[in-house]
Every structure is written in C-alpha cells, then in structure tokens.
Amino acid sequence: MISSKQCSKAILVVKFKQSIRMKSNRRIRGTTPEVEEAARKLRENLTLAEARLWEALSNKQLDGLRFCRQHPVGNFILDFYCPAYKLVVEIDGKIDDRQTEYDNARTNRLAEYGYKDYKI
After folding, report:
1. Degrees (nearest 5) of the Cα angle 77, 94, 82?
2. 109: enclosing H helix or E strand
3. For residue range 15-74, what is the model confidence (pLDDT) as tens digits?
4. 77-85 long-range contacts, Cβ below 8 Å, gap at least 24?
C-alpha cells in the first residue's frame, strides 16, 4: 500500500517534470515586513496537509530540489516554493473556496513573472 507521503511525492514529481526547464529571469521583487512576519507565523502553524507535504519536500528529498515553505514573494505568501524552477505548490483548503477571485488574480500575476503554480 502506498502512503499519502509517497502519493504526494509522486504527484509532485510528475507535475514538476512536466513543467521544468522553462526558466525565466523575471521575478517579483520586494516584500514588506508585515508579509514576512505573516509568513513566519504561518511556518510555525502548518496545517496537517502542509506538514505532511513538507516532510516529503524538506532537505532536498524530491530529486535534490530545494523547497521553501510559506515563502514571501512580493505581496504573496507561497505555501511551497522551488526557486530553481519558480515552481509554486499550493495546498487548497476550505478558505480557498471563499477566495477564488483572489486566487485566480494571484495565479495570473505569478504567471506574468514565469512562476508555475500547482494546486493540490
């Protein structure tokens, strides 16, 4: 039987390999102390799903790639981020059902700068 950790890791590998090798030098610059503080607090209070995925991504366990969790980029806080390929992994939760318009605008803004956003 496959564990949820292995399943999450397998899904990420497949999606990641489909999207890599299209690097962009453009990036969203700057953030605010408030956004950085909010990200720090979110890192201290991960959801169960985020904690499980972080176990699979931390310490370069996914093909040697470095991921950050609750990473501030501009005015956004990304659940998980691989800077080498501008790969953003978002775990959708109950709150995301109420903010689809914001999520779509955010995804579009990130895409303008070459970020690849995957929701799981």
Report:
1. 30
2. helix 100-112
3. 655 555 455 555 566 788 899 999 999 999 999 999 999 999 999 999 999 999 999 988
4. 77/35, 77/38, 77/39, 77/42, 79/50, 80/50, 80/53, 80/54, 82/16, 85/16, 85/19, 85/20, 85/21, 85/23, 85/116
